[in-house]
């Protein structure tokens, strides 16, 4: 429901020309209200002028667009291109406009509250994703620098210093631009502060490799960086040369300097025997670690299990490792160390078989805070799944389970991991019956709150979930949005 105040704000901003002319006479504390109303109506010009004349100390997108007393709806999921572009150009013009310096109170702009989702509900239907926001902000910073060097601008302009908190998304295509903006941060009134860093190279042939990464980390300090998503296959060499080893050590050291870093995603890199080199310089314990499909060996797992990170891990993804055969004891050691804080565990394609279920139950028993358990792609029978589900009912916080199609629903002789062509060749009726029985187990234990499903192609979706704030279901955000 909208308050009368909000309805009036909508009426005010819907006439862009009138609103822009009248802004000077509007009370400062009404700016947030007008901003949300303009965002809802996609009044780009009004948004631009509101930001250009922002009278307050901070500009926090998540807070401004989130639920407010005047209008409950959260608009932070709208990455409307019109609105976001107007915000960012408005910010540039805030720096450049002629208002006296004492009027310019803005110190912090926080863009990290913008959430990228698959489906967009805005009029223009054009989104500006994380990559495009990174690109535009970097471009505006570079333009500002050029402008400040050339033009006769207000001397007060050089005293403006606004920290702009943003989640960066860097690929080879915007690497140069972003690096330039970051390197010249000291002389630019808009200072990019990277809170989460992500770079990808999976689908569109955009590469950002170890050497780019090393250069980036060597030249730029990321003091507020909390989340780091390295490109899949950044470390894509089986035989590391001496230079590779050196680079790897540097990257590790640089990560150690990121004192806020608590989320690390390194999926699909070959890290065999190198986890210690990368992670031992870290001084802050990781809360989220994704090392799925990283070909970890026993030494890597032992390092993880014994490191101080183990006691802090809230989300762990070890998919693609043959846990029961390669390192049963170290894996369970790791699990026991994080059991008191673990919220999300992903063990897809880990060769967990019927004979391992009892061990798994023992390992999971202390994980009383577990909310999510994903284990598709494991060769488990219907019987074993039922046994496991009976146990899962006892985990009080559990909300989401992703379980595999039972092995006995596939033709005899199927081999794991199942290839894409055979993935759907299972007895669907039998699967439906088993899935019903599993749900019945949950119902009988009064666990209607647990959602159990088999998202066969959902690996994509899982990767798209926060902390990987990407857009579309299938592209996993590797498009430029
Ligand atoms: Zn729009």
TrEMBL record:
InterPro entries for this protein:
LRR_dom_sf, LRRC14/PRAME
Task: Answer whether the UniProt record assigns the keyword Cell membrane to this protein.
Answer: no
Q: Which Gene3D superfamilies match?
A: Ribonuclease Inhibitor
Q: Where are the transmembrane segments?
A: none
Gene Ontology CC annotation, any one: cytoplasm
Q: Which domain of life is it from?
A: Eukaryota
Q: Which UniProt keywords apply?
A: Leucine-rich repeat, Repeat
The UniProt similarity line reads: Belongs to the PRAME family. LRRC14 subfamily.
- What is this protein identified as? Leucine-rich repeat-containing protein 14B
Organism, per UniProt?
Zosterops lateralis melanops
């Amino acid at each position: 429901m909208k308050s009368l105040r909000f309805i009036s704000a909508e009426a005010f901003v819907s006439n862009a020309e009138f609103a822009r002319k009248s802004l000077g006479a509007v009370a400062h504390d009404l700016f947030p209200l007008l901003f949300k109303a303009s965002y809802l109506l996609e009044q780009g010009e009004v948004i631009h002028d509101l930001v250009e004349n922002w009278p307050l100390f901070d500009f926090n997108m998540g807070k401004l667009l989130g639920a407010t007393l005047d209008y409950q709806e959260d608009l932070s999921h709208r990455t409307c291109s019109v609105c976001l572009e107007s915000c960012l150009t408005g910010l540039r013009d805030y720096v450049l406009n002629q208002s006296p310096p004492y009027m310019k109170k803005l110190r912090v702009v926080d863009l990290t509250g913008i959430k990228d989702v698959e489906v967009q509900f805005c009029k223009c239907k054009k989104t500006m994703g994380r990559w495009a926001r990174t690109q535009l902000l970097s471009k505006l910073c570079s333009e500002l620098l050029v402008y400040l060097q050339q033009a006769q601008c207000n001397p007060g302009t050089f005293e403006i210093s606004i920290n702009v908190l943003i989640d960066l998304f860097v690929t080879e295509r915007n690497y140069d631009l972003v690096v330039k903006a970051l390197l010249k941060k000291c002389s630019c009134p808009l200072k990019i502060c990277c809170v989460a860093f992500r770079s990808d190279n999976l689908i569109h042939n955009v590469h950002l490799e170890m050497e780019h990464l090393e250069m980036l980390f060597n030249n730029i300090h990321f003091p507020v960086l909390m989340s780091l998503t390295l490109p899949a296959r950044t470390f894509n060499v089986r035989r590391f040369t001496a230079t590779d080893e050196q680079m790897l050590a540097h990257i590790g050291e640089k990560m150690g300097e990121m004192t806020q870093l608590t989320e690390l995603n390194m999926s699909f890199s070959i890290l065999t025997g190198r986890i210690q080199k990368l992670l031992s310089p870290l001084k802050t314990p990781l809360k989220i670690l994704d090392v799925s499909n990283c070909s970890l060996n026993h030494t890597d797992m032992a390092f993880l299990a014994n490191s101080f990170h183990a006691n802090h891990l809230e989300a762990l993804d070890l998919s693609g490792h043959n846990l029961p055969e390669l390192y049963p004891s170290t894996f369970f050691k790791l699990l026991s160390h994080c059991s008191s804080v673990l919220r999300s565990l992903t063990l897809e394609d880990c060769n967990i078989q019927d004979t391992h279920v009892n061990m798994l139950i023992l390992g999971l028993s202390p994980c009383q805070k577990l909310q999510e358990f994903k284990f598709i792609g494991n060769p488990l029978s219907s019987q074993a799944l039922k046994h496991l589900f009976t146990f899962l009912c006892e985990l009080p916080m559990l909300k989401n389970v992703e379980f595999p199609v039972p092995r006995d629903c596939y033709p005899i002789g199927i081999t794991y991991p199942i290839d894409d062509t055979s993935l759907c060749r299972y007895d669907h009726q039998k699967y439906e019956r088993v899935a019903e029985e599993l749900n019945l187990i949950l119902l009988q234990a009064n666990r209607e709150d647990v959602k159990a499903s088999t998202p066969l192609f959902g690996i994509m979706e899982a990767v798209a979930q926060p902390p990987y704030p990407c857009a579309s279901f299938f592209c996993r955000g590797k498009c430029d949005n």
